[in-house]
Structure formats: C-alpha cells, structure tokens
Amino acid sequence: MIDFRYHLVSLVSVFLALAVGIVLGAGPLKEPIGESLQSQVDALRTDRDNLRSDLDAAKGNIDKQNEFVTAAAPELIGGILDGREVSIIAAPDADSEQVEEVSNRVKEADGTIAGDVSFVPNTLSLEDSAAFLETLRTLVPSLPKDDSTAIRAALVIALTGDASMLEDEDNQADAGKQAAKLYDAFVEADRLRTDTDHKTTSLFIVIDDENSTLAEDTEPSPQNSDDKGTRTLVTDFITALTAEATSVVVAGDAGSAQNGLVNVLRTEKSRASTVDGLGLGAGPVITVRALASGEAGSHGHFGFAEDAEGILPAKTEETSSKDTQKGDEE
C-alpha cells in the first residue's frame, strides 16, 4: 500500500507540474518568453543581413580593385621584365587558361618564355623510381644520398643550371653542365611534360592546381613507405628552387589561398612570393609584378585574400629609375 501511495503521489506531482507550466506559459510568462525568443530571432536576422552586406561590400571592393589593376596593366607591368627569360611551371591540374594568361602578361612586360613545363603527380615521388634514380645518379654521382632529396636536387639543377646544394664546388660545376641531360631524363621518364626546348633560367612562376587542396595532402604514397606526402614534396621543392633562383612566384586562385599551395607557403613563411586571385583578370598582372619585385630583392604575398600583404607590390627602384630615364630621353 505504501508503494501504491508513493506512485500515486508521484503521478499527481507530475500532472500538477504540467498544469502549472501550462498556466504560466499561457498567462504571466507568455509575453516575456515570447518577447525573448522574438528578440533573439530578430538579432540573428540582423547579424545575417549585416554579414550579407559586409560580404557584398567586400566583393564589390574586390571587383573594383580587380577592374582597376586589369585596366592599368600597361602602366603596371609594361617593360618591367625588359628581356628577362621566365620559366613557367604548372601543377598537374593547373587551369590551362590561367597558365596562358600568365604567359601573355609576361610577354606584355617584355619578358620571354624560356620554359613552359607541367608537373605530373609523380614528378617528385619515389614511386617506381629505382631506374629513374639510377639514371640521375649516373649523370650526377654527387647527388644527395637521400633519394627524395636527390630527385628534388636533380630537378632544380635541370631548371636553373645551378647546383649550390651540393657540398663540393667541383661537383657543383660538373652537375651544372648536366642540366640539359637531367631535364631530358625527367621528360623521358614522363615526370615532366613540356613542348619547349630546355633552357635554364633564374626567374620562375609556379601555378598551383585549380581549386587546390594541397594543404590536406600530407600522406605518403601507399606504394612507397619512404615517400613523403605531396604537400611536403612540393614545399621542399619550392624551398630548394627559391634557394637557387633569383625570383620565384607561386600563384593560384582563391582555392589555393584557402587550402592550397599559396596557403601553405604563407603559413610556413616561405621566401617565395605568393599571389592569389589567378581566377581574376588582375591575378596574372600581380604575378608578373611580384616576379619583377622579387628579382629586385623584395619578396612578399599579394592578392585579395585576408592574409595578403597588399594587392600588388610597390614599384621597384630599378623600374622607377628606368621610367625616369625614359622621361628624360623624351
């Protein structure tokens, strides 16, 4: 009987609590609760509208800046390369139109395209590399003992003709003489694709994959446990190339700035200059400007992303002095 009374009292308490809640909800507390919920909804709507306005304003600013840079291209890059030879390196999934636009802007700046090569997924990989490494080491016996480093060093030598990464000066000179043969070895092994003859340069533009996600590619090749993740392979190559070249600019679209090679290099404070916004008309213009700025000794990160140092680098002293000379001659 005690158990029955206990359960009965419990049930009555539950129903009383429900009744009180209904009464209060429909009576004295109805308006405060309703007003509180409505105010929260209104606040969320206001935040949404403000965010939308901010995004529209930001997009409007980018559109205006893009239009200005594109329209001012002749004044911004005209003649700044002045006969310099430039090599363009495209990632495996780089947008061909972006590559062409960059190439056209290089020519507009009075530069020449010395080399136009495309990487493939295994360009720097150790996957199926035994015979390839044997070829490289036959050409340059003094390549680093680490296989991954050896492939990277061989490619940098092939592209730049410089081999200062090798310890012995005699080895450096001998390796530099093998640049063309190293280049051919990469092409014949289908680790590089190109339609241009070999020519070493010191100015490079590297174009990232369209909508790149390189920042996530940290796992090594499943076929070779000694391999490194694609992200490490590529960033190590950029570091090595920057050490030998005069100016290296890595350019990509908005995706690259968010989760691609541009993002990785900016995060790692790379010495290579970076440019985001290749999907916009201004991107190639900024890229060429950054290349010339790097040759003058000034490296930075440019474009429209939040972590960019500015839209485009300032005019170099060398370029400014040329403009002054032209004005005096006139």
Automatic annotation (TrEMBL):
Listed Basic and acidic residues bias regions: 315-330
Protein's UniProt keywords contain Transmembrane: no
A GO cellular-component term linked to this record: membrane
UniProtKB keywords: Coiled coil
Coiled-coil region(s): 34-61
Region (Disordered): 309-330
Keyword Coiled coil in annotation: yes
Any GO BP annotation: copper ion homeostasis
A Pfam short name: MctB
Protein name, per record: Copper transport outer membrane protein, MctB
